[in-house]
Amino acid sequence: MKISSRNVVEGTARAPHRAMYKAMGLTNDDLSKSFVGVSHTGNEATPCNIHLPNLAQQAKQGVTDGGATPREFSTIAVSDGIAMGHEGMKSSLISREIIADSIELMVRAHQYDALVGIAGCDKSLPGTMMGMIRLNIPSVFVYGGTIMPGMLDGRELTVVDVYEAVGSYDAGKITAEELENIENVACPNAGSCGGMFTANTMASISEAIGLALPGSASPPAEDERRDKIVYETGKACTELLELGIRPLDIVTFEAFENSITMLNAVGGSTNGILHLLAMANEAGVNLTYDDFERIRKKTPHLADMKPGGNYVMNSLDKIGGIPLIMKKLLDKNLIHGDVMTVTGKTIKENLDNLAIIEVPEQQIVKPIDQPIHEVGTAVILKGTLAPEGAVIKTAGVEMTEFTGIAKVYDREEYAFESVAKGDVEEGDVMIIRYEGPKGGPGMREMLSTTAALVGQGLGKKVAMVTDGRFSGGTRGFMVGHVAPEAFVGGPIALVQNGDKISINLEDCSINLHVSDDELENRKKQWRRPEPNYSTGALAKFASLVGSAANGAITKPAQY
């Protein structure tokens, strides 16, 4: 296998380059070895990532003990929890692209031979894996780990409970003191949000797709096993370098099918759909909404995880983690066992080598023949309101259809204010638009608003439809990723207050009940609003990004 780093350090013409490395303490022996980049998204913006610089030291030691020379670098990460509910959330999805781009640039610039990628908060996981796939050098991904649940009066809490408590406070159901008590204990230490929200969903997928070591997704961030996992990841990367196995040998169409199966089996975040489409684009794999629906319909929902269920990632870890779920799926031929992974072995070989002993009478992961739902929970909807598609997570959703009257908002803040003032009523279908990939830009998540609805007791009495996104922590009859989005003139731009809208999970439809003639008249009168940003990173993203139905990926403008 070609060792790219030799372009940088070999020959008399590279004496200046070697001098630069020696300034950082490297010896001729260090320079004679393969260079492995150790990327992490550590920062003080979020508890999900604050511990990653320390984990990087474990990965570097693993690389060193594997016989290569590690080179640490960091990239950005946005805290979705702290960016939520205001203009900051527009930067979140865009950060996925910047993470992938910055990893690509660092590796290309310095000609690293292999890559360890450590990530914590939501977009940093797919962003890191996208960078690995794009570069196609031997790479291993490792998750920074989940946060431990907070405890209050014997009840496990996550940050979503705080968001929902805000709605309860606005509705007069709890006092300011009770809200503060929840706030004070919900997030007790480092790690990513504890339920099967986006970070834990993508961590689960990293094992299913074969880019992470088996068993690496579920141990908590501050568990002593996390250090060992990250060390072993560094060592495994050097072994991949010896074997010459690259990401494109791993992330095949079948591997993506395994990932979609995992997404549905754990009741994962709808963001997983968006990110898998983006990762597939990097791999040159033709993945479509039809594939998601085909696989969903044959995948049982097994894991009773928050927000729709009762347990957090730490609970799943105690009974065997993601390998337990994968073994159940493999035993019923619901995943491909013959796909390659970063261990140099197949999924089946990895699972055969693990001692997976199911805890008797555990209630977290159900038997295949007694699932929570017979089919998966990451549902694609299509219809006159979303011709290209929309998504809804049905984990924890008891209704199969909802018909209501549209209440239209042209930005998230207006919708949240309406909920906080008590203006949203049973039977409403809240339409939040101009929050799509281009229109936002950045496709904001709506957790502040959806959680406030749940906290007010309206979670099962209203529906929400948006061309933006939802947090993995969202629950209820909430439809996102509506495409085409409002900013490009999709039907959601033409909805008016009082229109009738129906959503049906049985036939996977979402329809606007307005006549074709009326819609045509509205379309003639519609005018695209001015962009919210005309300069900077958000404007650049808006100019390059495509439909959510294709993963909201950015494509270079044609020369």
Annotation, overall tally of beta strands: 14
Biggest β-sheet strands, sense, barrel: 8 strands, mixed
Q: Give the overall shape, derived from the CA principal axes.
A: globular
Q: Taking Cα atoms only, what radius of gyration do you get, to the nearest Å?
A: 23 Å
State the separation between the terminal residues, measured CA to CA: 33 Å
Task: Classify the beta-strand content into a percent band.
Answer: 5-15%
Assign the structural class, choosing from mainly alpha, mainly beta, alpha/beta, alpha+beta, or little secondary structure: alpha/beta
So how many helices?
A: 22
Notes on the structure:
This protein has 559 residues and is of the alpha/beta class. 39% of the residues lie in helices and 14% in strands. It has 22 helices and 14 strands. The protein has an 8-stranded mixed beta sheet. Strands 2-1-3-4 form a 4-stranded parallel beta sheet, with helices on both faces. β13 (500-504) and β14 form a beta hairpin. α8 crosses α20 (447-455) and α13 packs across α15 (289-296). The protein starts with 5 loop residues before the first helix and ends in a 15-residue tail after the last helix. 59% of the residues are buried. The model has no long low-confidence stretch (mean pLDDT 95).
Main features:
globular, 14% strand, alpha/beta, 8-stranded mixed sheet, 559 residues, 4-stranded parallel sheet
Could you give the topology of this structure?
Blueprint: H1 6-9, H2 15-23, H3 28-31, E1 35-40, H4 52-65, E2 69-74, H5 80-83, H6 92-110, E3 114-119, H7 124-135, E4 139-143, E5 150-152, E6 155-157, H8 159-170, H9 176-185, H10 198-208, H11 224-243, H12 247-250, H13 253-265, H14 271-283, H15 289-296, H16 313-318, H17 321-331, H18 347-352, E7 378-383, E8 386-393, E9 401-409, H19 412-420, E10 428-432, H20 447-455, E11 463-466, E12 478-483, E13 500-504, E14 509-512, H21 516-525, H22 536-544
Parallel strand pairs: 1-2, 1-3, 3-4, 9-10, 10-11, 11-12
Antiparallel strand pairs: 5-6, 7-8, 8-12, 9-13, 13-14
